[in-house]
Design a protein that fits this description.
Layout: E1 4-7, E2 10-13, E3 18-24, E4 30-36, E5 43-49, E6 53-56, E7 64-69, E8 74-79, E9 88-95, E10 109-110, E11 114-119
Parallel strand pairs: 2-11
Antiparallel strand pairs: 1-3, 3-8, 4-5, 4-9, 5-6, 7-8, 9-10, 9-11
Length: about 120
C-alpha cells in the first residue's frame, strides 16, 4: 500500500502561481494529477511516467509543469498563469502498473485532495 500526501493548495489571484506537492510512501511508476470542480467530472491534468515522460491536458499546456524529485519520492505540479476556471480540488494519484496515464481508473492510490481557488 502506498500513501500519498498532497500539499500546496490555496487561494491565488488570476495570473498567479501555486506549486502542489505529492509525497509518496513507496515506489510507484507513474503519478498523475487530476482535478474536480463542483458539479463537474474529474479530469486529467498532468502525469509523469518513470520520472521522465510527461503528459499534459491541452488546457494546461504551457502553464503547468509536472516534475519528480526521486530522492524525496515527491512529484510536483507547478501551476502558473492560473485562471478562475482552474479552481478545483486537485488530487494526486499513483500506480505501479502500466496503462493510459490520463485514465484515472488505472491508478491504485489516491491522495486526499487539495483545494485550489483562483479569484478573478
Amino acid at each position: 500500500q502506498v500513501q500519498l500526501v498532497e500539499s500546496g493548495g490555496g487561494l491565488v489571484q488570476t495570473g498567479g502561481s501555486l506549486r502542489l506537492s505529492c509525497a509518496a510512501s513507496g515506489r510507484t511508476t507513474a503519478t498523475g494529477w487530476f482535478r474536480q470542480a463542483p458539479g463537474k467530472e474529474r479530469e486529467f491534468v498532468a502525469g509523469i511516467w518513470s520520472g521522465v515522460s510527461t503528459y499534459y491536458a491541452d488546457f494546461v499546456k504551457d502553464r503547468f509543469t509536472i516534475s519528480r524529485d526521486s530522492a524525496q519520492n515527491t512529484v510536483y505540479l507547478q501551476m502558473n498563469k492560473l485562471r478562475p476556471e482552474d479552481t478545483a480540488v486537485y488530487y494526486c494519484a499513483a500506480r505501479r502498473r502500466i496503462g493510459p496515464i490520463q485514465v484515472g481508473e488505472t491508478y491504485d492510490y489516491w491522495g486526499q485532495g487539495t483545494q485550489v481557488t483562483v479569484s478573478s
